Amino acid sequence: MTDPDALAAVQAWTRLDAAIGAFNRHLEREHGVTGAQLAILRIVREWSGAGGLALSAMRERLVMHPATLGQLLDRLATRGLVEVSPDRGDRRRRLVRLTGAGQRLLDAAPLAGPVRLRYQPADPTRLRRLAQALDDAIVLFGLEGYTHGERTGEPGQHRPEAGGGPAPGRRPGRGDPPPDRRPGSGPAPG
């Protein structure tokens, strides 16, 4: 017999997963981008200065494997939504800029998903409960070993309920958000 509370949690997760899937299908159908691509476009717009956003700064601030970020940017550049070019002042650096087409797509795309929290006011107590619930979901679903985009073979190596931060043996900047981007410390990227 299934515990009613466990069943309610599974149903809530199933609704969330279905809503995220439907949102991503809508984005691809109506705007030709994935949720991750849309998040990168929003980040480029938000973090860019007048000359663009240094790719190295994106790598340092995002919880994303550099190859994954590179693939996302390549796809966006191919579609003409961003431009990635050498910095005129330092040819070793690459700058990312939003194009006019990228700006128009952002203006037309719906503001939904986790990124909405960056732009819409919400009750701080409710946000803390949400953050804790999502961290609890990682633990209760047995997904701790997958939280950094890699599977180490040892569940529980990173324990979000213990305060977040880098997993043991990891250094910030190697796939982990800097201290000002950890849960409970302000808006997160994306």
From TrEMBL:
Pfam short name (any one): MarR_2
UniProt feature, compositional bias: Basic and acidic residues: 148-161, 173-183
Every HTH marR-type domain range: 1-136
The keyword Transcription regulation is annotated on this UniProt entry: yes
InterPro entries: HTH_MarR-typ, MarR/SlyA-like, Tscrpt_reg_MarR-type_CS, WH-like_DNA-bd_sf, WH_DNA-bd_sf
Keywords recorded for this protein, A-Z: DNA-binding, Transcription, Transcription regulation
Chain intervals for the UniProt region annotation (Disordered): 148-190
Record-given protein name: MarR family transcriptional regulator
Organism name: Phytohabitans maris
